[in-house]
Amino acid sequence: MEGWGLGTNSGIVFRWVRSSYCERKSIFEVMEEGESIQKDNPVVASSSSSLLKQYNRNEQVKILQFVVSKWSSFSYSPENIYVDRPSDQTSRWSSDSNNPPQFLILRLEKPAIVKSILFGKYEKTHVCNLRKFKIYGGLTEKHLIELYDGGLKNDHVPETFPLRYEIEGNPFPCRYIKIEPLQAWGTNFNFSIWYVELRGNDNWEDVKHCMNWYNTYREKEAIRLCLKHFRQRGYTEAFRELSAKTSITLEHPLLTQLHTILVINGDFKACEEYIIQARNEGMFDQFLCQQEYESEWTAIEPVNAKKPDSTSEARPGMRGGHQMCIDVLTETIYMFGGWDGNRDLADLWSYHLPSQTWICLSHDTEKDGGPSARSCHKMCLDYEKKQIFTLGRYLDPSMRSPERLKCDFHMYDIESHQWTFITEDTAAMGGPRLIFDHQMVIDIEHQTIYVFGGRVLTSPASSDSERSPEMLFSGLYSFHIPSNTWALLMDDCVALRSRIGHSMVFHPVRRVLYIFAGQRSKDYLNDFLSYQVDTKEVKVVSDGKSKDGCQAGFTQRATLDPDLNEIYVFSGLSRDKEKRDNVKNSFWVYDIINDKWSCIYKNENVGQNYWMKMQHVEPVPRFAHQLVYDHMRKIHYLFGGNPGKDSLPRLRLDDFWSLKLSRPSSDYLLRRCRCLIRKQQFLEMSSHEPLKAMAYLQNEVADMVDHSDPKETKEFQLLTSSLFPCPSIDDEAEPSSYNPVLQDIDLNFRKRTNLFNKLVAFFPDSMTQPKENLVDLVPLS
Amino acid sequence: MVLTNLHPSFGKKAVYILDCAMCSETVCRRGMLAVLVADGKTELFSTDKYDRSAVGVIPEIFWAKSCWCKIQSLACLNCGAVVGYHVILPCVKCLKAVNNGHRCMFHNKFVSHCYRLDEEGGDFLLWKHLKPHDEDNLLSRECLR
After folding, report:
1. What are the Muskelin N-terminal domain coordinates in residue numbering (chain A) (predicted)?
2. B23 to chain A: which residues are within 8 Å by CB?
3. Given a cut of 60, is residue A624 above it in pLDDT?
4. Which among A133, A216, A232, A278 is most buried, taking Cβ atoms within 10 Å?
């Protein structure tokens, strides 16, 4: 599996090396209150909807007064940011270099809880606008923490961003706010900031309260760091004295108990029992659900396997633009239609997962009373009633005569193998016109189908001029199955921009449609919207500006897991401004609860030789493929698609894959913990009872090793070396262990402490000692 | 600068896909078979605009072998091998001669070539049917299937 990197979260952290900067005391006066305050908060960035709630909750939010106390450089004076003059091109701070670090430090008139920042802009787009910036804040200039990481749109609309203002749920005060531009909209251009407004609470009563809390918090954390340090270094008396005097606890009493059992008593058996109990009580759950997924692709059938002609009928052929859906109750996948490179298909297949067999239900659905051959249609399945619905198709321009431009709508009954022709034209029933590349999902409980987006096919004859008519996109429709009625929920509009090649999934518990990405003429959309089907409310989950999310995609496929509250996206074509449109596949997970994207699979290889070699190991990059998800068994299935080869434009794929996403299980974690504990016991044993230690290694330690894992096996084999002591292989001694100050500390005590630190990392953060070490906070300059 | 074999009717010429001979990565999807203006013999491929996502410019500037055009080498972004060059300042001789307007060349021996087919895969793609550079991508197709 070498050669493909498991993706990490794409958020790039910039850490500039500080160089010298000019430091001048500000002579600027605080601007007059109200001078440039706009009537209302102009346009609140869409991501700040939670911010509005904060405003309502806290009446004390007001515009905060500040002065610019430091700046990195300037070609336009920093004082210009006090006033909002969008029509004046000189009314801005501009750096005189784009070399980092460039920054402005704002000093607030009074310490305050700073909740949001507003950036005003020039009346037109400007190359110097900040595409990326970070904001830091704190009580002193030297101790600032990150409050926001984001960017401005390159337009004239002022933008407001919420700032982080809480630590562990408690507001903290700031005196200094630092704005650090990282990138301008024009590469190699200097950074400009036109106008800044800070909002927050500077009511002294409230701030004083936070100051007290903040000071206590810092004091408490400092003492906990000392406690951790004292205990690790064996300064038992100092530890006892300090904890008695301050009555601050280092950790949850349960973990102190673990420390006593393991580090002080060296009772490894009790330690193992303790860990087993902790696992059984769910102590590791928080750690486990924070772990990243790993992806595992399996080819369901041999790719390009040469089969005799007699069996070639037994599986569906190459295609793209087909449809698939899954009945999770019977574990059966249904596939219909598609484009094989030359023509549209009309075959209907089922694949039974447990028996691994394809059955051709119909060679030609039109003959069997169903839809004609088609591609770029959509399909959805009701696993309760065993019904499949299909709607829409693509028509070649030469085929678009008025009588053909009707949107036929069909239903297939799985149990009776019968097609029902619901209507010849949904538009006549108040439903969508003939569309392709739309999305369709079903709400099984309420027996309603939702159809959103897609391009409306129009007759070329209807427009007299030679020019291609304006592209039409279809809105959001619902179809109530029992009453056989269509309704237009929302036409194509700004709040819910219609599109093609997007994704839409339905969350049956939250009763929300999630709509993501797609294309609209020449615009490639990267927004992420939700539509509550009961309240009909549209919400912007993400406007797509953040670099942390899934890349702007087109023809990506999405699925949803209602139990785990996760959305999965398998990318198709990605649109990257810097690079050629490439067919590169990646797999993303969106955590609905925590509003967080992560990339769990990515393969950026494009070389033909590479994919020739890898085609049996993982799917070659593609688009126009199909992906379905079995949320009961947590497995994805992928079939076919277009590999996008210029040299073979008619080539389509017929490979079939399963994708399993796995996280380390609690059993795995428990075994690893027990292995670590037994390893330590073995090491202690080997120094004074080598023979007994060897037996222990062969039995007890070996039991806890997964011998099929090469890394674990290697680790295990290396353990034998400690039976034959030799100075060069003296454990994983840290360099600090040779420090004369530390020499007195017992070696076993140190190793047990290391083991203890490893074990507590699996417990919830709120229970454990601080993660940081006191020694790491010592400045070396 | 180059002179194509059939200069009045470039449109009838086939479009080639060029792959780097070293790593087989595609370096150009819009190649035209041509001969050098300077010697009328050397066969190479030219293109109207090189693809920044596939090839990179090596900064050093030098003179072409057989004329006074100022050129820079182009290298495959995947493996770094030199695959051709682009003219930054053409010489008088080349400007006066009939040319196809392409300033970017790929050396015959550094690239492998094949015909590019049209979208449906029905026939060889000819220059007169080739979309402009900025529209020549998958996403500008009406339907992806």
Report:
1. 62-253
2. 607, 609
3. yes
4. A133
Per the listing, tokens 């346009």 go with A43
Q: Does A609 sit within 8 Å of B145, measured CB to CB? A: no
Question: B-chain residues within 8 Å CB-CB of A339?
Answer: 145
A649 → closest Cβ in B121, B137, B139 = B121
Asked if residues A195 and A36 have their Cβ atoms less than 8 Å apart, the reply is yes
Tokens of B18: 């060029």
Angle between helices A268-280 and A666-688 (to 10 degrees): 180
Q: Could you give the CA distance from residue A767 to residue B3 in angstroms, rounded to a whole number? A: 77
Residue A54 has pLDDT above 60, yes or no: no
Tokens 């009309």 map to which residue? Answer: A346
Give the residue among A486, A478, A515 at the shortest CA–CA distance from A500: A515
Strand partners, A574: A553, A582
Q: Does B118 touch chain A (CB under 8 A)?
A: yes
DSSP line for A140-155: ETTEEEEEEEE---SS
Interior/surface letters A498-520, b for 16+ CB within 10 angstroms, e for the rest: bbbbbbbbbbeeeebbbbbbbbb
pTM: 0.69
Q: List % helix, strand, coil for chain A (3-state, nearest 5).
A: 25, 30, 45
- The complex scores an ipTM of 0.76
Residue A15 has pLDDT above 50, yes or no: no
Q: Which residues of B touch A579 (CB under 8 A)?
A: 53
Please state the rounded mean pLDDT for residues A342-360.
93
Mean pLDDT, chain A, as a whole number? Answer: 84
Q: Is B25 on the interface with A (CB under 8 A)?
A: yes
Size of interface A-B (CB pairs under 8 A): 77
Q: What is the pLDDT at residue A741? A: 54
pLDDT tens digits for A180-230?
Answer: 999 988 766 789 999 999 999 999 999 999 999 999 999 999 999 999 999
The encoded tokens of residue A455 equal 């391009």
Whether residue B23 lies within 8 A of chain A, CB to CB, comes out as yes
Q: What is the 3-state secondary structure (H, E, C) of A663-691?
A: CCCHHHHHHHHHHHHHHHHHHHHHHHCHH
B98/chain A closest Cα distance in angstroms = 31
Return d(Cα A572, Cα A588) in angstroms, integer: 12
> Nearest by CB to B29, which of A375, A397, A646?
A646
Mark yes or no for CB contact A436/B143 under 8 Å. Answer: yes
